[in-house]
Design a protein that fits this description.
With 340 residues, this protein is α+β, with helices and mostly antiparallel strands. The protein has a single domain, classed as 2-Layer Sandwich (Creatine Kinase, Chain A, domain 2). The strands form 3 sheets. The chain has a 5-stranded antiparallel beta sheet, with helices on one face. Strands 2, 3, 4, 5 and 6 form a 5-stranded antiparallel beta sheet that branches. Strands 7-9 form a two-stranded antiparallel sheet. Strand 4 and strand 5 form a beta hairpin. Helix 8 crosses helix 9. The protein is globular and about 55 Å long. The relative contact order is 0.16. The mean pLDDT is 94.
Protein backbone atom coordinates (compact mmCIF):
# COMPACT_ATOMS: atom_id res chain seq x y z
CA UNK A 1 0.00 0.00 0.00
CA UNK A 2 1.14 3.54 -0.72
CA UNK A 3 2.48 5.43 2.30
CA UNK A 4 2.19 9.25 2.09
CA UNK A 5 5.61 10.89 1.87
CA UNK A 6 6.70 13.96 3.79
CA UNK A 7 6.85 16.14 0.69
CA UNK A 8 6.51 19.92 0.84
CA UNK A 9 4.22 21.37 -1.82
CA UNK A 10 4.41 24.71 -3.60
CA UNK A 11 3.77 26.38 -6.93
CA UNK A 12 4.45 29.44 -9.07
CA UNK A 13 1.58 29.67 -11.58
CA UNK A 14 1.15 32.57 -14.01
CA UNK A 15 -1.75 34.62 -15.34
CA UNK A 16 -2.33 37.79 -17.37
CA UNK A 17 -3.89 41.22 -17.02
CA UNK A 18 -6.41 42.60 -19.49
CA UNK A 19 -7.74 46.06 -20.30
CA UNK A 20 -10.25 46.86 -23.00
CA UNK A 21 -10.23 43.26 -24.16
CA UNK A 22 -6.46 43.31 -24.78
CA UNK A 23 -3.55 41.78 -22.86
CA UNK A 24 -1.43 44.42 -21.17
CA UNK A 25 1.95 44.14 -19.53
CA UNK A 26 1.66 43.34 -15.84
CA UNK A 27 4.37 45.92 -15.14
CA UNK A 28 1.86 48.66 -16.02
CA UNK A 29 -0.39 47.59 -13.17
CA UNK A 30 1.66 45.90 -10.47
CA UNK A 31 4.44 47.52 -8.43
CA UNK A 32 7.96 46.38 -9.18
CA UNK A 33 8.32 44.98 -5.68
CA UNK A 34 5.20 42.87 -6.14
CA UNK A 35 2.31 42.41 -3.74
CA UNK A 36 2.63 40.84 -0.32
CA UNK A 37 0.31 38.91 1.98
CA UNK A 38 0.46 38.17 5.65
CA UNK A 39 2.43 35.00 4.97
CA UNK A 40 4.42 35.82 1.83
CA UNK A 41 6.41 38.99 1.16
CA UNK A 42 6.41 38.51 -2.63
CA UNK A 43 3.17 36.65 -3.30
CA UNK A 44 2.31 38.33 -6.63
CA UNK A 45 5.31 39.31 -8.76
CA UNK A 46 6.13 40.43 -12.29
CA UNK A 47 7.27 37.77 -14.72
CA UNK A 48 7.64 39.07 -18.27
CA UNK A 49 4.32 40.11 -19.79
CA UNK A 50 2.41 38.17 -17.14
CA UNK A 51 2.41 38.01 -13.36
CA UNK A 52 3.33 35.06 -11.19
CA UNK A 53 2.00 33.81 -7.86
CA UNK A 54 4.37 32.46 -5.22
CA UNK A 55 3.49 30.29 -2.25
CA UNK A 56 5.38 29.25 0.83
CA UNK A 57 6.16 25.52 1.08
CA UNK A 58 3.22 23.68 2.60
CA UNK A 59 2.51 20.18 3.80
CA UNK A 60 -0.95 19.72 2.29
CA UNK A 61 -2.83 20.70 -0.90
CA UNK A 62 -5.34 22.63 1.21
CA UNK A 63 -2.59 24.78 2.71
CA UNK A 64 -1.21 25.58 -0.74
CA UNK A 65 -4.71 26.65 -1.81
CA UNK A 66 -4.95 28.85 1.29
CA UNK A 67 -1.77 30.64 0.20
CA UNK A 68 -3.17 31.23 -3.28
CA UNK A 69 -6.39 32.57 -1.81
CA UNK A 70 -4.40 35.13 0.16
CA UNK A 71 -2.43 36.10 -2.97
CA UNK A 72 -5.60 36.57 -5.00
CA UNK A 73 -7.12 38.65 -2.22
CA UNK A 74 -4.09 40.95 -2.32
CA UNK A 75 -4.35 41.16 -6.11
CA UNK A 76 -8.07 41.91 -6.07
CA UNK A 77 -7.52 44.64 -3.48
CA UNK A 78 -4.86 46.21 -5.67
CA UNK A 79 -6.93 45.99 -8.87
CA UNK A 80 -9.81 47.74 -7.10
CA UNK A 81 -7.67 50.91 -7.22
CA UNK A 82 -7.24 50.69 -11.01
CA UNK A 83 -10.09 51.06 -13.48
CA UNK A 84 -11.07 48.49 -16.08
CA UNK A 85 -8.29 45.95 -15.46
CA UNK A 86 -9.19 42.27 -15.12
CA UNK A 87 -7.35 38.98 -14.87
CA UNK A 88 -7.16 36.43 -17.69
CA UNK A 89 -6.63 32.83 -16.67
CA UNK A 90 -6.13 31.54 -20.21
CA UNK A 91 -3.24 29.16 -20.80
CA UNK A 92 -2.26 30.93 -24.02
CA UNK A 93 -2.86 34.58 -24.95
CA UNK A 94 -1.81 36.90 -27.75
CA UNK A 95 -0.37 40.34 -27.15
CA UNK A 96 -0.38 43.18 -29.68
CA UNK A 97 3.00 44.15 -31.10
CA UNK A 98 2.31 47.74 -30.11
CA UNK A 99 1.69 46.75 -26.51
CA UNK A 100 4.73 44.49 -26.44
CA UNK A 101 6.94 47.25 -27.83
CA UNK A 102 5.75 49.59 -25.08
CA UNK A 103 7.07 47.31 -22.34
CA UNK A 104 10.49 47.23 -20.73
CA UNK A 105 13.17 45.05 -22.27
CA UNK A 106 12.96 42.70 -19.32
CA UNK A 107 9.21 42.21 -19.84
CA UNK A 108 9.58 41.61 -23.59
CA UNK A 109 12.26 38.97 -23.19
CA UNK A 110 11.41 35.32 -22.69
CA UNK A 111 13.93 34.92 -19.94
CA UNK A 112 13.21 31.52 -18.38
CA UNK A 113 16.21 29.57 -17.19
CA UNK A 114 16.86 26.42 -19.21
CA UNK A 115 14.80 23.36 -18.33
CA UNK A 116 15.73 19.71 -18.50
CA UNK A 117 13.62 17.23 -20.46
CA UNK A 118 13.23 13.59 -19.55
CA UNK A 119 12.78 12.52 -23.17
CA UNK A 120 15.64 14.49 -24.70
CA UNK A 121 13.55 17.19 -26.37
CA UNK A 122 15.89 20.00 -27.35
CA UNK A 123 15.76 23.44 -25.79
CA UNK A 124 13.56 25.93 -27.65
CA UNK A 125 14.85 29.41 -28.40
CA UNK A 126 12.24 32.01 -29.35
CA UNK A 127 12.68 35.72 -29.94
CA UNK A 128 10.29 37.10 -27.36
CA UNK A 129 10.28 40.54 -28.95
CA UNK A 130 8.66 39.12 -32.10
CA UNK A 131 6.73 36.08 -30.87
CA UNK A 132 3.36 37.51 -29.83
CA UNK A 133 1.97 34.59 -27.86
CA UNK A 134 2.56 34.04 -24.17
CA UNK A 135 1.82 30.99 -22.04
CA UNK A 136 0.57 30.82 -18.49
CA UNK A 137 2.49 28.07 -16.75
CA UNK A 138 1.27 26.09 -13.77
CA UNK A 139 4.54 24.84 -12.35
CA UNK A 140 4.53 22.55 -9.33
CA UNK A 141 7.29 22.71 -6.73
CA UNK A 142 8.13 19.67 -4.61
CA UNK A 143 10.34 19.90 -1.55
CA UNK A 144 11.84 16.42 -1.24
CA UNK A 145 13.79 14.51 1.38
CA UNK A 146 15.21 11.03 2.02
CA UNK A 147 14.96 8.53 0.44
CA UNK A 148 14.13 10.44 -2.76
CA UNK A 149 16.60 13.28 -2.33
CA UNK A 150 19.10 14.70 0.12
CA UNK A 151 20.81 17.88 -1.02
CA UNK A 152 23.69 17.20 1.37
CA UNK A 153 24.29 13.62 0.20
CA UNK A 154 24.97 13.10 -3.50
CA UNK A 155 24.29 9.39 -3.14
CA UNK A 156 20.61 10.10 -2.40
CA UNK A 157 19.15 11.67 -5.51
CA UNK A 158 16.27 9.89 -7.25
CA UNK A 159 14.52 13.03 -8.45
CA UNK A 160 14.68 12.20 -12.15
CA UNK A 161 12.81 8.95 -11.46
CA UNK A 162 9.97 11.07 -10.13
CA UNK A 163 9.50 12.98 -13.41
CA UNK A 164 8.08 9.98 -15.31
CA UNK A 165 5.68 9.27 -12.44
CA UNK A 166 4.57 12.91 -12.59
CA UNK A 167 3.90 12.55 -16.32
CA UNK A 168 1.82 9.42 -15.74
CA UNK A 169 -0.15 10.61 -12.70
CA UNK A 170 -0.27 14.38 -13.15
CA UNK A 171 0.44 15.22 -16.78
CA UNK A 172 -1.73 12.53 -18.40
CA UNK A 173 -4.56 12.93 -15.88
CA UNK A 174 -4.64 16.67 -16.43
CA UNK A 175 -5.04 16.19 -20.20
CA UNK A 176 -8.51 14.86 -19.36
CA UNK A 177 -9.27 18.05 -17.41
CA UNK A 178 -7.45 20.80 -19.35
CA UNK A 179 -9.13 20.79 -22.75
CA UNK A 180 -7.72 24.11 -23.94
CA UNK A 181 -7.55 23.82 -27.78
CA UNK A 182 -4.34 25.86 -27.73
CA UNK A 183 -2.56 23.41 -25.43
CA UNK A 184 -0.78 21.55 -28.28
CA UNK A 185 0.70 24.79 -29.62
CA UNK A 186 1.67 25.84 -26.13
CA UNK A 187 3.66 22.65 -25.70
CA UNK A 188 5.57 23.23 -28.90
CA UNK A 189 7.24 26.13 -27.16
CA UNK A 190 6.63 25.86 -23.45
CA UNK A 191 5.74 23.28 -20.82
CA UNK A 192 6.47 20.14 -22.80
CA UNK A 193 5.92 16.67 -21.42
CA UNK A 194 8.77 15.60 -19.16
CA UNK A 195 9.88 19.20 -18.55
CA UNK A 196 11.57 19.77 -15.19
CA UNK A 197 14.23 21.55 -13.17
CA UNK A 198 16.26 20.34 -10.21
CA UNK A 199 16.30 23.18 -7.66
CA UNK A 200 18.03 22.73 -4.30
CA UNK A 201 14.73 21.98 -2.55
CA UNK A 202 13.81 19.08 -4.85
CA UNK A 203 11.88 19.11 -8.12
CA UNK A 204 10.06 21.63 -10.28
CA UNK A 205 7.57 20.00 -12.67
CA UNK A 206 6.98 22.39 -15.57
CA UNK A 207 4.55 20.60 -17.89
CA UNK A 208 1.18 21.92 -16.73
CA UNK A 209 -0.56 25.09 -17.81
CA UNK A 210 -2.27 27.41 -15.36
CA UNK A 211 -5.67 25.75 -15.91
CA UNK A 212 -5.84 24.67 -12.29
CA UNK A 213 -6.03 28.29 -11.15
CA UNK A 214 -9.67 28.19 -12.21
CA UNK A 215 -10.70 26.86 -8.80
CA UNK A 216 -9.55 25.67 -5.42
CA UNK A 217 -10.67 22.07 -6.09
CA UNK A 218 -8.49 21.90 -9.20
CA UNK A 219 -5.50 23.30 -7.34
CA UNK A 220 -5.89 20.74 -4.59
CA UNK A 221 -6.29 18.00 -7.22
CA UNK A 222 -2.99 18.89 -8.92
CA UNK A 223 -1.12 19.27 -5.62
CA UNK A 224 -2.59 15.99 -4.37
CA UNK A 225 -1.64 14.06 -7.52
CA UNK A 226 1.89 15.47 -7.24
CA UNK A 227 2.05 14.29 -3.64
CA UNK A 228 0.76 10.90 -4.82
CA UNK A 229 3.58 10.56 -7.37
CA UNK A 230 6.19 11.39 -4.72
CA UNK A 231 4.58 9.01 -2.26
CA UNK A 232 4.70 6.09 -4.69
CA UNK A 233 8.42 6.61 -5.27
CA UNK A 234 9.07 7.21 -1.57
CA UNK A 235 7.21 4.02 -0.60
CA UNK A 236 9.08 1.99 -3.21
CA UNK A 237 12.47 3.19 -2.01
CA UNK A 238 11.63 2.61 1.66
CA UNK A 239 10.08 -0.85 1.63
CA UNK A 240 11.28 -2.40 -1.61
CA UNK A 241 7.70 -2.88 -2.84
CA UNK A 242 8.64 -1.55 -6.30
CA UNK A 243 5.27 0.18 -6.58
CA UNK A 244 6.80 2.67 -9.00
CA UNK A 245 7.94 -0.13 -11.30
CA UNK A 246 4.56 -1.87 -11.04
CA UNK A 247 2.82 1.32 -12.14
CA UNK A 248 5.23 2.03 -15.00
CA UNK A 249 4.89 -1.56 -16.23
CA UNK A 250 1.14 -0.99 -16.67
CA UNK A 251 1.50 2.00 -19.01
CA UNK A 252 3.07 2.67 -22.38
CA UNK A 253 5.30 5.66 -21.72
CA UNK A 254 5.39 6.50 -25.42
CA UNK A 255 1.62 6.88 -25.36
CA UNK A 256 1.86 8.99 -22.22
CA UNK A 257 4.31 11.31 -23.97
CA UNK A 258 2.11 11.57 -27.06
CA UNK A 259 -1.09 12.18 -25.10
CA UNK A 260 0.42 14.94 -22.98
CA UNK A 261 2.40 16.63 -25.73
CA UNK A 262 -0.55 16.67 -28.16
CA UNK A 263 -3.28 17.07 -25.52
CA UNK A 264 -4.91 13.96 -27.00
CA UNK A 265 -8.01 13.23 -24.93
CA UNK A 266 -8.76 9.80 -26.38
CA UNK A 267 -5.25 8.54 -25.81
CA UNK A 268 -5.08 10.07 -22.32
CA UNK A 269 -8.27 8.21 -21.39
CA UNK A 270 -6.76 4.94 -22.66
CA UNK A 271 -3.59 5.63 -20.68
CA UNK A 272 -5.64 6.28 -17.56
CA UNK A 273 -7.37 2.88 -17.55
CA UNK A 274 -4.40 0.92 -16.10
CA UNK A 275 -3.52 3.84 -13.82
CA UNK A 276 -7.05 3.73 -12.42
CA UNK A 277 -6.75 -0.01 -11.78
CA UNK A 278 -3.43 0.56 -9.98
CA UNK A 279 -4.93 3.24 -7.75
CA UNK A 280 -7.95 1.10 -6.99
CA UNK A 281 -5.62 -1.64 -5.77
CA UNK A 282 -2.91 0.34 -4.00
CA UNK A 283 -4.51 3.61 -2.88
CA UNK A 284 -7.37 2.92 -0.40
CA UNK A 285 -9.97 5.52 0.64
CA UNK A 286 -8.09 6.15 3.89
CA UNK A 287 -5.38 7.99 1.96
CA UNK A 288 -6.69 11.54 1.87
CA UNK A 289 -4.94 14.47 0.22
CA UNK A 290 -3.35 12.46 -2.61
CA UNK A 291 -5.66 13.62 -5.38
CA UNK A 292 -7.22 10.26 -6.23
CA UNK A 293 -7.91 7.12 -4.24
CA UNK A 294 -10.17 4.11 -4.54
CA UNK A 295 -13.07 5.88 -2.85
CA UNK A 296 -13.39 8.71 -5.39
CA UNK A 297 -12.52 7.08 -8.72
CA UNK A 298 -16.16 6.71 -9.81
CA UNK A 299 -16.80 10.36 -8.99
CA UNK A 300 -13.72 11.38 -10.93
CA UNK A 301 -14.98 9.45 -13.96
CA UNK A 302 -18.21 11.48 -13.84
CA UNK A 303 -16.19 14.67 -13.44
CA UNK A 304 -14.14 13.95 -16.56
CA UNK A 305 -17.25 12.99 -18.52
CA UNK A 306 -18.85 16.31 -17.58
CA UNK A 307 -15.84 18.20 -18.90
CA UNK A 308 -15.82 16.19 -22.11
CA UNK A 309 -19.50 16.87 -22.74
CA UNK A 310 -19.91 20.42 -21.44
CA UNK A 311 -16.46 21.93 -20.85
CA UNK A 312 -14.73 22.73 -17.60
CA UNK A 313 -17.09 25.69 -17.11
CA UNK A 314 -19.80 23.14 -16.38
CA UNK A 315 -18.21 22.50 -13.02
CA UNK A 316 -16.53 25.86 -12.42
CA UNK A 317 -18.62 28.66 -13.97
CA UNK A 318 -17.49 31.39 -11.58
CA UNK A 319 -14.88 34.02 -12.49
CA UNK A 320 -11.76 32.62 -10.79
CA UNK A 321 -10.77 35.83 -9.01
CA UNK A 322 -14.19 36.01 -7.37
CA UNK A 323 -14.03 32.31 -6.51
CA UNK A 324 -10.63 32.59 -4.82
CA UNK A 325 -11.66 35.60 -2.75
CA UNK A 326 -15.01 34.23 -1.58
CA UNK A 327 -15.75 32.39 1.66
CA UNK A 328 -17.65 29.64 -0.18
CA UNK A 329 -14.66 27.61 -1.35
CA UNK A 330 -14.66 23.84 -0.92
CA UNK A 331 -11.77 21.43 -1.25
CA UNK A 332 -11.14 18.84 -3.96
CA UNK A 333 -12.54 15.79 -2.18
CA UNK A 334 -15.61 17.62 -0.88
CA UNK A 335 -16.28 18.85 -4.42
CA UNK A 336 -15.62 15.45 -5.99
CA UNK A 337 -17.87 13.60 -3.57
CA UNK A 338 -20.73 15.78 -4.82
CA UNK A 339 -20.13 14.89 -8.46
CA UNK A 340 -22.63 12.35 -9.78
Amino acid sequence: MIQPSKVMLGCDPEAFLMKGGRVIGAEKVLPGRGLSTGTKRHAVVLDGVQFELHTNPQGTPSEVANELSLAFTALKRHLATIEHVSVSFKGVVSIDQEELDSLSEKARTLGCEPSKNLYGMTEINIDGTKYLKRSGGGHVQLGLSDPIYNQYNRNIDNRVDLVALMDVLVGNTCVMIDRDPEAPERRLNYGRVGEYRLPPHGLEYRTLSNFWLRSRPLTECVMGLSHLAASILDTSLRDGSKLDEKLMERVNIGNIVKAVQENDLGLAKENYIPVRAFLHKHCPPTLKGLGLHAGVLDHFDCFVKGIEEHGIEHWFPEYPLEHWTSDQQVGWESFLNGVK
